[in-house]
């Protein structure tokens, strides 16, 4: 049984947007901090990982939102490194209300990379052992991110403050570029219910990125099933895709 | 004697830049949160201020940095609303190391504005009374911000995440635009020792601002005194200046 690690957090005004609810960069920042605390407590901090010549990277998130945490709310942040296979570690995060109700669930896919060669390494059992993660054979699949067919984009320059103390662009920052293109009207009239995001390449300081998006209005499919409002996103530099995402929304 | 209010804070990795030290937006965010907590504790929260038809605005900061807080450091955040005159309230913040050593001192100038008419109001004594602030006659003066004579600029669009849960652009966000123009090389080779920043107008979502700057290399003045390296900054839209700042730096 994987070890669970839990902290509490009071949601600050500067972690929230005009909707009075927590932003994705703030939620992911707190989630990752909690996993770093667990890793340090289990003697698997960055120095230990570095002693294997490796560093953690996050390749994707799959996020389910019941309700976003609100300004001033006391939340619990729980995490568990549940499973791993040859190349991927599956870590779960939960943001919970004070009474334990689930607000947000984040499934994160981690991999280990050699920072010199930039190559992904297989996961050494000794690194994962203290977390009590279950070794599995299969590779988990998340909702498909369909390509953009009729998109628009806005350009963004990667800023000094987009690089964090870990020396690279914090991948929570991608959400600034993904969300911003949707505009004030959209972002204040809709609530996100689900996000799948995949990080393909790492953007660096000074890069000029394009944040492409397409809005797929809610509809009914051939089988008569309701298909919710979705937005598809691609962060690109020239022809290269750095990040892809699909968001599902409901009207407020 | 003005009431002092103090909290503790653990510096998170996502509050720090590549220098492993806290960013200005993170420091100011935590400072303002502490003052909001003090105000709430003294029954002077935003609803009470709103009952006078008013809201707080910050017109300037004067910041003295001995050493910036580091990733993982436990700091104390103290605040005191020390003085006020007819139109301005002078609030002090201190970020202190665990042993009480002063790391950063922030003097903030607050004013009260009618959000309908956008006019600054005189400060009602009853609003300030619980803080124990001393009433003074004089207006405090901070270092002069000399105008830019030979500048360059970069443009920035005000993003959705730049507006916080208080519905306007958090003035800590101005530091993103002020710092970013100086570039990676400058920002990793120099440490800030002093900042004076004045907010003249409020930028709004969707605005395209210009972040102008001028670097004044260290020199010796006519009297033979050493003048340190300084950068002067102006946030402009067209001919209108929204914010001015002067930073003093030392080499690392």
Outline the structure in words.
- Chains A, B: Belongs to the acyl-ACP thioesterase family.
- The structure is a homodimer of 252-residue chains.
- The longest helix of chain A is centred in the first third of the chain and has 18 residues, at 24-41.
- With 252 residues, chain A is an alpha+beta fold.
- Chain A has five helices and 14 strands.
- In chain A, strand 3 and strand 4 form a beta hairpin.
- Helix content of chain A is 17%, strand content 42%.
- In chain A, the strands form two sheets. In chain A, strands 1, 2, 3, 4, 5, 6, 7, 8, 9, 10, 13 and 14 form a twelve-stranded mixed beta sheet that branches.
- The interface between A and B is large, with 37 and 37 residues.
